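Researcher: I'm preparing a figure for a lab meeting and need a structural model of a single chain. I don't have an experimental structure, so a prediction will have to do for now. The sequence is pasted below. Please return the structure as C-alpha cells so I can convert it later.
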Amino acid sequence: MILPSLGRQPHPIVIKISTLLASITEPILGPLRDLLREPTRRIHPIFERLDFSPMAAILLIYFIQWGLHRLLLSM
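Model: Understood. Here is the structure written out cell by cell.
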C-alpha cells in the first residue's frame, strides 16, 4: 500500500483512490499472494519480501486470453 510512505496526513483524494484501487485488485491479488508466499519463501528468504502476485495475475490473464482466442478460432 502506498499510504504509509506519504507521511502523516495523506490527502483525502489519495486515500479514496488508494481504497478504490485496493478494492478492485485485492480480490485477485490476495489469493495469488497467498498461493505464492510459501514457494517463494522456500527458494530464498529474501523473496518473502517481494510481491510476485501482480506478475502472476498478468500472466494468468494472458493465458486465459490466449486460451479463449484459440478456442474461438477452432470453432
